[in-house]
């Protein structure tokens, strides 16, 4: 999962007041040659940052162009979704949705339910998932999953119902896909190991190991973070992604693709010590 920032629109060329234009030529020496040359006139270059139309939002990480209505509107929508997530209506849940945990309670004050559905679902659910995937890809600066990948992927949603709200909120989303192999992340002490391979900034043992489940995307809106929601979703995926075959992340049965810094912490907390390449290791 790549972690670089993304842009709402291509940045325009930043404005710059080039007060100096160019250095002035020193005054020419008088004929006869005795006069001292005048010292060069020093000029200062002022970069007018106040005029720079690009703004990087500290809340959602998006960089957008100030004063461009489409960009401002796009940012407003994205920022609200990053903070509070999207709504989920019962009408989006008509078919193909499995209730994985009816009463999830990962931390005090957080009560919700976990559902799962196919990532290539159609209808209203499919339309909502497309928006959720778009949000996750923008946050992670990740490319969209291919149709082939979506076919091999299940979506896990953590749904909460805030007081007085008529619809539930998606307070977390995890994608889980069938994969074939992954690499074991080496402990820090082993990074000098001659055969170690650097994958997504992590030193790994070079031999691919059979692995049934990969986690290509995880996202929790900022309002709901550090309440155990992502961990609850990973556990739910490990338990139920492969029918009749609960998996144990601590024994190498789960891998993350391209973890971010917080994703790496989450991996540690869930006992996941494997990484994989989304395109190469898909089953
Ligand atoms: C990474 C992310 C999904 C974590 O979601 P979350 O619901 O806040 O995670 P949890 O509350 O389940 O965290 C479980 C444990 O993981 C670790 N952890 C998670 N996020 C962490 C962070 N930002 N810093 C340090 N530790 C973190 C902690 O050990 C935490 O347990 P604790 O809160 O009891 O200390 C969320 O921060 C997010 O959506 N980030 C933006 C997208 C992203 O980076 N996704 C990861 C892609 S691999
Ligand atoms: Zn923002």
Automatic annotation (TrEMBL):
Its main location: nucleus. One of its GO terms (biological process) is mitotic sister chromatid cohesion. PANTHER family: N-ACETYLTRANSFERASE ECO. Residues 213-268 form the N-acetyltransferase ESCO acetyl-transferase domain. Keywords: Acyltransferase, Cell cycle, Metal-binding, Nucleus, Transferase, Zinc, Zinc-finger. It is found in: Nucleus. Residues 28-37 have a biased composition (Low complexity). This is N-acetyltransferase ECO1. The keyword Cell cycle applies. Residues 44-81 form the N-acetyltransferase ESCO zinc-finger domain. GO terms for cellular component: chromatin; nucleus. Residues 1-37 are annotated as: Disordered. Belongs to the acetyltransferase family. ECO subfamily. GO terms for molecular function: protein-lysine-acetyltransferase activity; zinc ion binding. Pfam families: Acetyltransf_13, zf-C2H2_3.
